[in-house]
Amino acid sequence: MNGPVISLGGSIFSKNDENYLLKFIERIGKEESYALVVGGGPVARDEIARLRKIGAKEYYLDMMGIQATRLNASMVSLALGNLMEVPESIDEAVRQMKLYKRVIMGGTEPGHTTDAVSLLLAEALNRDTVVNVTNVDYLYDRDPKINGAKKVENISYSGAVEMITSEKRGAGANFPLDILSLNIARRSNIGIKIVSFRDQENVFKAITGKKFKGTTVS
After folding, report:
1. Is the distance from CB of 72 to CB of 10 less than 8 angstroms?
2. What is the DSSP letter of 208?
3. What's the rounded Cα separation, in Å, for the pair 59 and 82?
4. What is the spatial distance between Cα 129 and Cα 185, in angstroms, rounded to a whole number?
5. Helices (H), the chain
6. 112: three-class secondary structure by DSSP
7. Which is deepest, 9, 31, 179, 216, by most CB within 10 Å?
């Protein structure tokens, strides 16, 4: 598969949702080629919370989060039967992709979410799409927990940035993207598809370019 870069949100690594992760691994393992960027999930959150209590600086909290993403990436790589090391930079990932036609990585440096890493990897690999596999089925015009929240099927980069900063949402709650990711996508015209990992058939429709249920940012 020479298609999109796939961003696997950390939420899929919850123990309660392990079966979805295993199904994804089984399905993606049938593909000859893939590019995956893996989030930190509960491991990252728990360790960061513990370090924050003892007064660790934000830089080091970021570094702990990056280590968690690489741990998850290693687990996915082993489950897929890959023996390559997890790349620690975009350049390493590109070299690995050229050699093996597949790459699985986590974070790279403080200040960059794995969503941003997935967009940077898409730029470097000249891919025009990132599929963000997360725990929400669509973007919503406000926090989905608020009555009257409406799903958004198509939105521009600038519209998504406005949505993040909207007072109705409050500190970007329940938003699967960040401003850095959107700016990277906009500068290279990379489309972002947002899908829920709980519908595997729908996820692979998005990955293979078929009509899917979710949000497209372009």
Report:
1. yes
2. T
3. 31
4. 9
5. 18-28, 41-53, 58-79, 90-100, 114-125, 157-165, 179-188, 200-207
6. coil
7. 9
Positive/negative CA dihedral, 10, 70, 189, 32: negative
Question: Hey, what domains does the chain have and what are their CATH numbers?
Answer: 5-136+177-217 (3.40.1160.10)
Residue 123 vs residues 52, 152, 188: alpha-carbon distances, Å: 33, 25, 7
For 103-149, what is each residue's pLDDT tens digit?
999 999 998 999 999 999 999 999 999 999 998 899 888 777 788 88
Q: Give the pLDDT of residue 86.
A: 95
Tokens of 188: 């290279």
Q: Return the closest-CA partner of residue 36 out of 90, 84, 102.
A: 102
Pull the structure tokens for residue 10: 């950390």
State the Rg of the chain over Cα. Answer: 16
- The pTM of the full predicted model, rounded to 2 decimals, is 0.91
Contacts of 51 (CB under 8 A, 6+ apart): 60, 61, 64
- Chain segment 147-198, per-residue pLDDT in tens: 888 899 999 999 999 888 764 443 334 467 899 999 999 999 999 999 999 9
Strand order in the sheet with 191-196: 102-105, 34-38, 5-8, 129-134, 191-196, 215-217, 154-155
In one-letter notation, the amino acid at residue 88 is E
User: pLDDT, tens digit, for every residue of 56-71?
Assistant: 898 988 898 999 999 9
**Tokens linked to 61:** 């909290």
